[in-house]
Design brief:
- With 255 residues, this protein is an alpha+beta fold.
- It contains 6 helices and 7 strands.
- A 7-stranded antiparallel β-sheet has the order 1-2-4-5-6-3-7, covered by helices on one side.
- A hairpin with a 2-residue loop joins strand 5 and strand 6.
- Helix 3 packs across helix 4.
- The radius of gyration is 19 Å and the shape is globular.
Length: 255
């Protein structure tokens, strides 16, 4: 069962950042999903160009620093233990992810939580993610599958990267309908995790996915992230596997 609303808020200190991201998403869906006259569009463009110029004067976000100081990787650096999300708790994945990140102006609004040894989630997609008429773009659904599978990792206490993702589109997935998501660990061979997932609404499964995630030693990731510009705290001594040819997947760490 999805956790109650008061447990679902992402631990983001700056509420105006969440509000601004939601406002940009709302505008994006409106501009994409409605027919506006040229005068209205010109007024919007003038206002938005001025706002964009002001926003571009802000300090650049440093994701390397964020990963090394906050979240699961930051806690591992502080304690030497990889944290696990308790059963029933919300899974906070990535604050700026375009799938479930509350700070992403392009976010889909997905939310995740743990149920037993599975990750569950829910998302309702709007006009900006339309592919065929009234249906979800297949690429958007693939991104959702990647993230619901990544969200499983904190539930089972593993850090890993996406190595391969295969999606089977069983039916055209409708826009504007709450999609129920779930993912689980199907099997494991050494560092290779075989994960599976499905997306359904009203009991109808619209798509399924399977993937290979490659387990990663956090100390190896620290070496990858460490740079002169962003000095990292010293990593705890590692007893895990060293880097291999598939140590880093195509889309980076699922933290």
């Amino acid at each position: 069962m999805e956790p109650p609303i008061d447990n679902r808020a992402h631990p983001v200190a700056d509420e105006p950042a969440v509000r601004s991201a939601l406002a940009v998403r709302r505008l994006g869906h409106a501009v994409t999903g409605r027919v506006l006259d040229d005068a209205h569009l010109a007024d919007l463009a003038d206002a938005l160009e001025a706002l964009a110029e002001r926003a571009e004067g802000g300090e650049l976000f440093d994701k390397q620093r964020e990963m090394l100081t906050n979240g699961r990787l930051g806690r591992w650096l502080a304690t030497g233990e990889w944290p696990t999300v308790p059963d029933g708790d919300i899974i906070h994945f990535d604050t700026r992810s375009f799938v479930g990140g509350p700070l992403s102006a392009f976010g889909m609004g997905a939310r995740y939580w743990r149920e037993g040894d599975e990750a569950h989630g829910r998302v309702t997609l709007g006009p900006a993610y339309e592919g065929p008429p009234g249906r979800v773009h297949g690429g958007a659904l693939a991104a959702i599958f990647d993230e619901i599978m990544g969200a499983l990792l904190p539930a089972i206490g593993i850090m890993a990267f996406t190595g391969r993702l295969t999606v089977r589109y069983k039916r055209a997935t409708p826009l504007g309908v709450p999609l129920e998501l779930r993912s689980w660990l199907a099997s494991r061979q050494g560092r290779r995790l075989h994960l599976e997932a499905e997306a359904a609404a009203d009991g109808v499964v619209f798509a399924t996915a399977e993937s290979i995630f490659v387990e990663q030693d956090p100390a190896v990731l620290i070496d990858v992230l460490r740079s002169d510009a962003v000095p990292a705290p010293a990593a705890p001594a590692s007893t895990g596997p060293g880097p291999g040819p598939d140590a880093v997947g195509s889309d980076g760490p699922q933290l």
